[in-house]
Amino acid sequence: MISMPALLGLLAFVVAPFLLAVVLGFSNLRLGSPLPLEWVGFEQYRRIFADPSFTRALFNNLLFALVVVPLQTALALVLALLLNRRLRGIALFRTLFFMPVVFPLSLVAVVWILIFAPGPNGTMNAFLELVSLGAWTPHDFLRDTRLALPAIMLTSLWQGAGFQMVIVLAGLQAIPAELYEAAMIDGAGRWQQFWHVTLPQLRNTMIFVVLVTTILAFRLFDQVQIMTQGGPHDATTTVMFEAVEAAFTRQQVARGAAMSVVLFVVVLLISWLQRRLARQEREVA
Amino acid sequence: MTSRAAIALVYTGLLLMGLLFISPIAFMLAGSFKPDARVLMEAGEWRAFWPAEMSLQNYRDVFTRVDFARFLWNSLLINGAIVGLGLLVNALAGYAFARLAWRGRDLMLSLVLAVMIIPIEAIAVPLFYLVSLFGWRDTYLVQILPFIANAFSIYLFYTYFIGMPRELEEAARIDGAGVLRTFFSVILPNAKAVFASVAILTFLTQWGAFLWPLMVTSSESVRPLPLAIATFHSLPPLQWGDIFAFGMMMVLPVLLIFLVFQPWFVRGVAATGIKG
Q1: Structure ipTM
Q2: DSSP letter assigned to residue A39
Q3: Minimal CB count within 10 Å: which of A5, A18, A251, B234?
């Protein structure tokens, strides 16, 4: 059967580990532990939700999503709208906005550590001082409990916006020109065309972009590991960072598995919500 | 129709956003040619984006300080294997779902669709445990094997093949060609677009892989570039010129491929949006 290699691969490396995560989440497994393996029911879940670092991690992921998703989606939409016309040099700008996407996140994280360097010499500090006409006082972004997470948000925004932009641009270009012509005959101005043609036609694309960005927000790891190690005082810790800390650094496999399951449940909820929203639209149409 | 003022506004917006987007890249490029001390010193001035005295010293330093060629080779090997084998395996599965009748097909298809939403992050911990159990850590294989079969790739192939006209295949079948022959001689040459999209998408997501290599590798001999740059950054003495030179060399091959095959990149990424 020619579909066997792929299906076996999925079963062995996705389905099996996933089921194993669920099973392990109910155990007390630790690597290299002398204690016998026991089934502890929901004990791991009780413990992680009682752990202030983990609840902070969930909160940080949620905050990251609440800030980055609207901002990045809006930015992608604005960029796509600017690019969706036949003007000289448009291709060059599209290349430019998409370029950060080909940069690996780990490299981006390392470069932005220097951009966020403390003191008036730091790039971001100097830039903010310039645009605020001298009102900004230098901060040590990555060691500041209030600024560390926003710094990581900005880094992610810069790297990821181009990806969403391309998807939105494809959505824009799929809107039939007749719709705009009809709107113009009805006497609709540019603004009205945007509200009554562009946005409704773009609805499913936007729902998809929001879904992908939200899921990415909950998968956040690389930037945190490299830029802040979850600190200062858990200000930037994430579910994935906590899971790796538990399973990898402290060898508490069962605890890490329980956290993975929580992550998956969140992702599942988001996907379910997207499907419902997209279906509603189809029923209306 | 479009007024001059509107065009000027669009260009101003594009230019402003463009400058903001390009500045971190320009900063890195300029810094990679500067003496190490100057990179940090000039980070807050306009000179951050302009190397006054150009030299390739940082690039030479990278090669004396770490085995860059080794990391590059590791990344190329791992990603080449994932993309190459992935294309073959996932395209065959997509074809089987689209064209062949077999028992359990519908069940398996819903499994593939369900599995699509499981991110690597959700299975990294148990997979790490399995791999440790079998003693597979610190190998190339453990960085390749789990990522060959990919539900989303199968889905992209499946939807593309479903939409292809059947006539070509029927002609081949009448000529007595088997399933595999038909696939390689008829389907493959007529579906280059989807192959390119899947290849680029796989490459984009795997080239930057960090979490999994971090968990399963400990020796430099099998570590890929994304992990190597993070380690290089924390390797004393902290020399930003060297780090930026490392970064430039790491991203340059991808950047070149991107610039040459740009329409394919855009199409590949846009293909992800069709799903909704």
Answers
A1: 0.90
A2: B
A3: B234
Residue with tokens 């993070």: B230
User: Hunting for tokens 């496999």 — which residue is that?
Assistant: A253
Alpha-carbon gap, residue B132 to B125, rounded angstroms: 11
DSSP tally for chain A: helices H, then strands E: 15, 0
Scanning the structure block, which residue is given the tokens 């960090």? B210
Contact A85 B10 (CB under 8 A): yes
pLDDT in tens, A13-42: 999 999 999 999 999 888 877 777 888 889
d(CA A177, CA A200): 14
Q: What is the pLDDT of residues A150-172, one digit of tens each?
A: 999 999 999 999 999 999 998 89
CA distance B244 to A107: 9
Length of chain B: 276
Tokens representing B126? 């148990």
Which single residue is written with the structure tokens 């200000």?
Answer: A235
Would you list the domain boundaries of chain A?
A: 51-284
Domain ranges across chain B: 4-55, 64-274
Question: Domain A51-284 maps to which CATH number in 1.10.3720.10, 3.40.630.30, 3.30.300.30, 3.90.79.10?
Answer: 1.10.3720.10
Residue numbers in B near A275 (CB within 8 A): none
Rg (CA), chain B: 23
Give A108's contacts in chain B (Cβ within 8 Å): 24
The more confident residue out of B274 and A3 is A3
Taking CB atoms and an 8 Å cutoff, what residues of chain A touch B146?
9, 13
CATH for the stretch B64-274: 1.10.3720.10
Q: Inspect the interface and report whether the beta carbons of B259 and A82 lie closer than 8 Å.
A: no
Tokens for B68?
Answer: 């860059």
Secondary-structure percent of chain B, ordered helix, strand, coil, rounded to 5: 75, 0, 25
**Is-contact A169 A98, C-beta < 8 A?**
no
